[in-house]
Amino acid sequence: MAVQIIALAVFAAVFVIAEIRRTHIGIVMFAAATGMGLLVAGLALEDIVAGFPVDILILLVGVTFFFGIAKSNGTIGRLVDRALVLVGDNTGALPLTFFVLTGVVSAMGSPLGGLVMAPIAMSVAHRRRIDPMLMALAVGTGLSAGGFAPTSLFGIVTWGTAASAGIALNPMTLLAVAVVANLVLLLVAHLLFGARRRSRSAVAVGGGTPSTGPVEHGPAEHGPAEREPFRGVHLVTVVAMLGLVASVIVLAVLGNEPDVGVLAFAFGAVLTLIDPENGRGALKEIDWSTVLLVGGIITYVGVLQEIGAVDLLGDLAATLTVPLLAALVICAVCGLVSAFASTTGILAALVPLAIPLIQQGGLAGWALICALGVCSSIVDVSPFSTVGATLVATTVDPDERPRMTALLTRWGLSMVVLGPLALVGALVLPAMAF
């Protein structure tokens, strides 16, 4: 147990030290993971390095490169122009619109499939001067809600695990809880970030400079840019974008989990062969800082999982003698670990820990499993996870990315505490009274 506790303490200390020193957390965390793995845990170097999330690197690089081409050649700008003309002055409806669109795509088999909406949503936010934090949370909550559909991975793992343990849980109940919880979060996000408008003129998605004067609607939103025609390269890019979304949906419907990053690389390769100049320009859109941030932290989390530190947290929660307190702690542990690791993996690993509480502690099984599942998902907007990292990487204005990283960190980690309190209080506690 001493090794696990030391590793957890070092994990927390690296965050504090890197923040105080204003250094890149991912780089320091990767070094710490190597040191802890070799010197304290006795792991082989290849096992430690194997924890680096190559799949997330492929996702981030593939998605940002593909949509970087669409941005560089002007396709996204034209699409956003026309979308904003259709929306008109109803800017307030845009976050809810992207919540629904992301939720629908995420419900079709793979929750991460909803990430194909992130670049478009963040571009719309940039053009309409919506706070990118609000739009990021709209996408994140939509992905979380749709992921618990009976047809999607989060839902299948959660209610499937419950069913295998003999716990009655209606899949539609799980979906309803996820949708309501995430809509509440979106409302909170709107209250916190909805009033802020970007302090720059409305400019084309591909560029522009900050405005030093009062904020006003510029010509880029209502002027000639709206009438720029789609040329051949733009039509090809639109077909590729539709192909990417369709591939994700079709593969999910056929029972295969689509790899969005690999698909984005494939379509991006086609586009860069057709349009080499904009393909080269899209390389600068890849956010390597975020890749390193996520890579370093997840590598350390891999060491924690390898030495049993994650299981230790779950086991300690399960030994608590007060069932309601144990439920709170298990939900918090699920949220904390999921903020840095695979939500699907955490659900599969830690949902079974709730079974003894349900069987012996008099807790309503459906309520606790719903709370546990949603608590594991609502933290995914943390920039240390796949979803949050993608939201940071697709933020259009590079100057906004440090702010997005800080705010998404606070939001994600606050959900580790507030999520269990709210969901256990709203589901488990009332169910105990009946």
TrEMBL record:
The keyword Transmembrane applies. The chain crosses the membrane at residues 28-45, 52-70, 96-122, 134-160, 172-193, 233-254, 288-304, 324-351, 363-391, 411-433. Keywords: Membrane, Transmembrane, Transmembrane helix. Residues 1-147 form the Dicarboxylate carrier MatC N-terminal domain. InterPro entries: MatC_N. Pfam families: MatC_N. Residues 204-226 are annotated as: Disordered. This is Transporter, UIT1 family.
